[in-house]
Amino acid sequence: MISAVIISYNEAGNIKRLMKSLEGLDDVVMCDDGSTDGTQALAESLGARVYRRHDHSVLVEDSDVEKFLEVYGYLPKFKKGDRMFNGSANRNEAASYAKNDWILNVDCDEIVTWDLPVIKGLLPEADIVVCKIVDNATEEFYDTWKLYNRATTSFDGRIHELPNGRGKRLVHTDKMSIRHYQKQKAYRDTYLPVIEYAAIKDNDLRMKFYLGKEYARANELDKSIRAFQEYLKEGSWLPEVMEAYTYLSKCLWMTGKKEEAIYTCMQAIVINPDYRESLLQMGLMLPEHAHVWKRYAKYAKNSDALIVRFG
Fold first, then answer.
1. Structural domain of 140
2. What is the pLDDT of residue 306?
3. Vertex 100: Cα angle to 97 and 102 (nearest 5)
């Protein structure tokens, strides 16, 4: 009924842990990118069917660089001739090898905890099953769409890809969760050029949002401000818009734009007064009223939040 589908490259150190968490499934597919550390043989020995994936990447052209410069006002990290991968094409190819329509698309550095009979019982009413994914290093968590029906949807996005949920039946459950063991710094430097490229080449609104986040992580605050402002021209999904306003407020505050930062944080609170992080941010920026904002934050439940950092 459910096939687990995995994208891999030199993941021999993680495969045993992941495969242990997938016990109970009758089909596990690995789509490998040419591992040299024994990942493929180890996965096969643990019961996975292994395929060598195709190359879905494209080369950056001069016009891509010029268009980014025109929109954002500075040169991107990517340059002509760079090869840009396509995460959703990779995942959709991997899903094509599965025996079942229900796909659990899990990464090698994750493990799944679930009540499998209960989850199977949800499938007739759903196109996508939504559960929590938890960062093992920070305990931050957010909703993820790792379990979906390939007969009714498929992956979208070049990076940070997700099943397309437009018009689909989403069922939320607390009977399943995923824990993520990724070592962020090992991968982060490769994210930014692809996100920049997707934001401009694919006109991907989610990537415009993620672009602001990645610049903030890299402490490129002026670029982060510009990216979030560009995203907010079009952003409409309220949990993501609220997160963008909260991030933008922090960046504005750290660059000395205090009045603008306070106004921007209030925009987030207007969208969702039940989000603890924006309430605490307001208390930080208005110390004379911090006790009031902390009191509000104490009772906030983080409903409809995109990411929860303060559980």
1. 2-180
2. 85
3. 110
Residue appearing with tokens 């407020």: 249
DSSP state of 53: P
Q: Which amino acid is at 193?
A: P
Of 241, 182, 192, residue with least CA distance to 216: 192
Q: Which residues of the chain have pLDDT under 50?
A: none
Confidence (pTM): 0.86
DSSP state of 305: -
Three-state secondary-structure class, residue 90: helix
Domain at 304, CATH number: 1.25.40
Does residue 19 sit in helix, strand or coil? helix
C-alpha 140/C-alpha 46 separation (Å) is 31
pLDDT of residue 7: 95
Q: Write down the pLDDT at residue 185.
A: 54
As a whole number of angstroms, the distance between CA 187 and CA 199 comes to 19
Q: Are residues 76 and 161 in the same domain?
A: yes
Q: What is the pLDDT of residues 269-290, one digit of tens each?
A: 999 999 999 999 999 999 999 9
Read off the CATH number of the domain in which 111 is found: 3.90.550.10
**Residues, the chain:** 311
- Segment (H or E) for 271: helix 258-271
CA atoms lying within 13 Å on the CB side of residue 9: 5
**Within its chain, how far is the Cα of 301 from the centroid?**
22
Contact 208, 230 (CB under 8 A): yes
Task: Give the model's pLDDT for residue 184.
Answer: 54
**Do 88 and 160 share a domain, yes or no?**
yes
Whether residue 97 lies inside any domain: the answer is yes
